[in-house]
Design goal:
By secondary structure, this protein is mostly helical. Among the domains are: 44 residues, no CATH class; 91 residues, Methane Monooxygenase Hydroxylase, Chain G, domain 1. It is built from seven helices and two strands, in the order E-E-H-H-H-H-H-H-H. A two-stranded antiparallel sheet has the order 1-2. Strand 1 and strand 2 form a beta hairpin. The radius of gyration is 50 Å and the shape is rod-shaped.
Length: 215
């Protein structure tokens, strides 16, 4: 048994008493009254309040959590789509730059020999090599060169022989000495700034072979 305060006179009475023994005021709650309201009225009477106090029961805000989750998923999808759209473009741009750099490197090495400067060619007599280069024209594309083929050749001879392979495919030389030398041949027609894709397997082998012997 618990003690409560009478809602009329405020005296202490039993919570099971149907009415206040002091003032005769009814104390029992209507059977249809919600439990939350009954508890509120009892709390109000305990604090001497004449007005019943009702505190509604708490409910989970399910819809708030559902909407928050949907917004989070939507943001994730948007970020993923943006990344998927722009990342491949960046990769393609990077690949194009790398390919361009590789082609530039190939073009430059077609004219230059390893560890050789412009000064080394100044005393080289190109005009005396026309007959030799004409004889090599068919060889460099039809069979692989060996050590016996290049025995006794100077570094300048090797460089000129290597550039013969590029000249056959119409390479546009940047160096005037090669441009002038191969322009003397009727078969030379400068058309391309990069001819590496035009070389056959034998020509590619001979280019690499000559490069290994240049110094």
């Amino acid at each position: 048994m618990a003690l409560i305060y009478c809602r009329e006179c405020g005296r202490t009475i039993s919570d099971t008493a149907p009415m206040c023994p002091y003032c005769g005021s009814p104390q029992s709650m209507p059977p249809s009254m919600p439990s939350g309201m009954q508890q509120g009225m009892q709390q109000g009477m305990q604090y001497g309040q004449n007005t019943p106090y009702y505190e509604p029961e708490n409910k989970n805000n399910v819809w708030i959590y559902v909407i928050s989750a949907l917004i989070g998923v939507l943001l994730f999808v948007v970020i993923f789509l943006l990344f998927s759209t722009f990342a491949p473009q960046c990769n393609r741009s990077s690949n194009k730059e790398t390919t361009s750099q590789q082609q530039t490197t190939t073009d430059n090495t077609s004219e230059k020999s390893h560890h050789h400067s412009d000064y080394d060619y100044r005393n080289y007599d190109y005009t005396s090599k026309h007959a030799e280069i004409e004889a090599w024209k068919g060889v460099v594309s039809s069979r692989r060169l060996d050590e016996g083929d290049i025995a006794g050749m100077s570094n300048d001879d090797l460089c000129l022989l290597r550039n013969l392979i590029y000249a056959k495919h119409g390479y546009i030389f940047k160096k005037s000495r090669f441009r002038e030398f191969f322009s003397a041949y009727s078969w030379y027609s400068p058309r391309h700034s990069n001819v590496s894709h035009s070389l056959n397997s034998i020509e590619n082998y001979n280019v690499d072979f000559i490069k290994r012997h240049e110094w």
